[in-house]
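Entry 12.
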Amino acid sequence: MVPESRRSPRSSALPSTFCAVVAERRLLSNLAYCLLDSVGAAEVAVQETYTRWYTMPDEEQERIDRPLTWLVGTLVRICVDRRDSSSRHAGGRAVDPAGRPDPAGPTPRRFRAWREVPKL
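Predicted 3D structure (tokens):
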């Protein structure tokens, strides 16, 4: 590793940007995992969130003041929708992605409030 004093000023731009992107993705993955209790389902939700962001027209993206806030809000709605749809498919009982009943039961009330949050 090159000591900090020997690095050129321009070389620090890429690592800091890269670190920010990795930190953003880690935050979204951790949040999705907390909501869905599955690494695979969390990864799918994060991918869907990024797909919605990058397929959004440029004009809409420019109107969003805080992209991370938009990403988190969208991710939470995706996760809540997934939990609700898995509950409906299991006859009212929550299931994990493998189809086994979730011991935690149906979606807690605290997550239902996110459904009423207006889309940004």
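Annotation: The chain has a mean pLDDT of 77. Residues 87 and 93 are 5 Å apart (CA to CA).
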